[in-house]
Amino acid sequence: MNLNKVFILGRVTADPETRTTTSGERVTSFSIATNRVWTDKSGQKKEASEFHNVVFFGRQADVASQFLTKGSLVLVEGRLQTRSYEAKDGSKRYVTEIMGESLQLGPRSANQGGGSYERSSSSNNSFGSNAKTEGKEDVPVIEIEDDVLDIRPEDLPF
After folding, report:
1. Bridge partner list, 85
2. Tens digit of pLDDT for each residue in 76-109?
3. Which of 16, 125, 145, 158 has the smallest C-beta neighbourhood within 10 Å, fewest atoms?
């Protein structure tokens, strides 16, 4: 029996990049940084970071591009896939990526501002008037399609 399963918990290193394939499927890619801390034989604290490239397709790609920003904490479940390409100098190069199957958003920190959700720019929303009062912000609005079965508003961690 064989198993190719990866779980990565880390922080997004840059805002995700989204593109569309020639067949119209959405693809979102981003990198996650993980770290390891240990004490060496001499008692010195050491730390090492690893960077992992992640790729999502379809609806999960849309969720990743909408809710993830640089610094976001995210748990990704997927599989490893290695692909090859020809570099500009003609040499053959290999890259190993995590092909994401699911993701869980981490908690939103106070200094992420509006990074995990979009603020409504319209003057009307489901809560009535969206006018600012002195010292108060607009109410954030998250729009989720009703026909999406794999993600429900009550599953979002905020």
Report:
1. 93
2. 999 999 998 888 898 999 999 999 999 988 887 6
3. 145
The two tokens of residue 74 are 């995210």
Q: How far apart are CA 7 and CA 79, in angstroms?
A: 9
Report d(CA 60, CA 63) in Å as an integer. Answer: 5
Q: Which residue has the higher pLDDT, 115 or 158?
A: 158
User: Which residues are CB-contacts of 50 (< 8 A; sequence separation ≥ 6)?
Assistant: 33, 34, 35, 36
Superfamily of domain 6-115: Nucleic acid-binding proteins (2.40.50.140)
The mean pLDDT value of the chain amounts to 79
Does residue 148 have a pLDDT over 90?
no
CA distances from 150 to 16, 101, 103, 110 (A): 21, 12, 12, 28
- Look at strands 92-105 and 45-57 and give their pairing: parallel
pTM above 0.85, yes or no: no
For tokens 């993701």, the residue is 103
Residue 155 is given by DSSP the state G
